[in-house]
Amino acid sequence: MKKTVGLVVDSTFGLKDKFVKEEDIIVVPLKVMIDDQEYVDGTLDPNAVVKALQEKKQVKTSQPSPDLFKAAYEKHLEKYDEVLCLTLSKTLSGTINSAGLAKTILDHPKVVVVDTESTINGSGYLAEKVVEYINEGHTASEAVSYLDDLKEKGSLIFTVDNLQTLHLNGRLGKMSAFIGNILKIKPILRFRRGVLDVEHKVRSFHNVILYLKKQVEMMLEYGKDVVVRIAYVDRATEAKELEHELFQLGDKVHVKLTGIISPVISAHVGLGGLGIYLAYEE
Fold first, then answer.
1. Would residue 79 be called left, alpha or beta, if left means φ above 0 and alpha means ψ between -120 and 50 degrees?
2. What integer pLDDT is reported at residue 160 of this predicted model?
3. Mean pLDDT of the chain
4. What's the 3-state SS for the chain?
5. What distance in Å separates the CA atoms of residue 268 and residue 169, rounded to the nearest whole number?
6. Which has more pLDDT, 269 or 229?
């Protein structure tokens, strides 16, 4: 069937250039500021943010302007009957506000804006599944319902070196950050449907990997296929180790190492970031 819905996403989704081009997706970029220098997300090497964090430089981010989203909607409406815009979680960024304002300014009934309530490779995975769905000829309204079902099936589980970055960026409460840092433990956090919680605490990175593996094993017990997407800030070696461990769990576990997290999200997560998006498929 003919595809009737054009897709717009923000730059934190981490979609590969080839996929974006083949699926005719418009990516609206956020911005990253390192000290006083401004960069467009998607053009900045993620390792530059890692280096800046290591050097304790000030790293900030900003959401796209409504004009960028409006231009994306207008471009897709020249070709498609409807436009579906997906953004990272509103609890992490005001990007959805810009996307929604652009829809209001354009005042077009066929533009739909949706919060994925996720980020990193979670929102990326959701976007990939939505692309498959709209390629079957489904409408934007049907895709929104489909996406809502997908959200219930997965979550992000990750660790960081220091909870202070998340706290300073307003993503985590002061007490949770204080406890994690003062005890010198490795916090394990879960981000599900826009809510971030400290789920567990371990004493070493090796135990982080064991915990993540255990979460996958527990999901396997439901008898369904399990999807795992691995991403990191500056833990490439550990990410490969985790990938190797998960490959041992059998054919029902579909593992993909998506690589380094986007500069915008790395700035908020901080150093030592490593995690998975874990979901099951019917």
1. alpha
2. 86
3. 91
4. CCCCEEEEEEHHHCCCHHHHHHCCCEEECCEEEECCEEEECCCCCHHHHHHHHHCCCCEEEECCCHHHHHHHHHHHHCCCCEEEEEECCCCCCCHHHHHHHHHHHHCCCCEEEEECCCCHHHHHHHHHHHHHHHCCCCCHHHHHHHHHHHHCCEEEEEECCCCHHHHHCCCCCHHHHHHHHHCCCEEEEEEECCEEEEEEEECCHHHHHHHHHHHHHHHHCCCCEEEEEEEECCCHHHHHHHHHHHHCCCCCEEEEEEEECCHHHHHHHCCCCEEEEEEEEC
5. 6
6. 229
Residue 115: φ, ψ to 5°:
-85, 120
Q: Is residue 229 a contact partner of residue 276, using CB atoms and an 8 Å limit?
A: yes
- Give yes or no for a contact between 34 and 48, defined as CB atoms under 8 angstroms apart: yes
CA atoms within 13 A on the CB side of 13: 31
pTM of the model: 0.91
Please report the domains of the chain, with CATH numbers, ordered by start residue. 5-29+64-151 (3.40.50.10440), 154-281 (3.30.1180.10)
Residue 90 phi, psi (nearest 5): -65, -20
Nearest CA among 65, 71, 93, 95 for reference residue 83: 71
Q: Which residues contact 3 (CB under 8 A, 6 or more apart)?
A: 80, 134, 135, 137
The stretch 70-82 carries a mean pLDDT of: 98
Count how many residues are written for the chain: 282
φ, ψ at 236 (rounded to 5°): -60, -40
Q: Are 217 and 273 in contact (CB under 8 A)?
A: no
Closest CA to 142 of 281, 282, 4: 4
pLDDT tens digits for range 186-239: 889 999 999 888 888 888 889 999 999 999 999 999 889 999 999 999 999 999
Does residue 178 have a pLDDT over 70? no
